[in-house]
Amino acid sequence: MRKLIIDRFEGTYAICEDQEKKMFAISLNELPQGAKPGDVLQISGAGELSVDQEETQRRRKKMAGLQSKLFR
């Protein structure tokens, strides 16, 4: 299953990055309701997007730990 990370919103698009560092613009109306920057999106075989809550939380904890070390 392919995954994307929402980097930011620009106008009516979500700018997302995949594991290979390729960037994609996805229309906001195609995103799952409540999706926000930093969320990890899963793309099903049928092309449906969903937020991977577990992976999103894991990444946020990792980033918080890195920031904590950086700003000690």
UniProtKB/TrEMBL annotation:
<dbReference type="Pfam" id="PF11213">
    <property type="entry name" value="DUF3006"/>
</dbReference>
<feature type="region of interest" description="Disordered">
    <location>
        <begin position="51"/>
        <end position="72"/>
    </location>
</feature>
<dbReference type="InterPro" id="IPR021377">
    <property type="entry name" value="DUF3006"/>
</dbReference>
<protein>
    <recommendedName>
        <fullName>DUF3006 domain-containing protein</fullName>
    </recommendedName>
</protein>
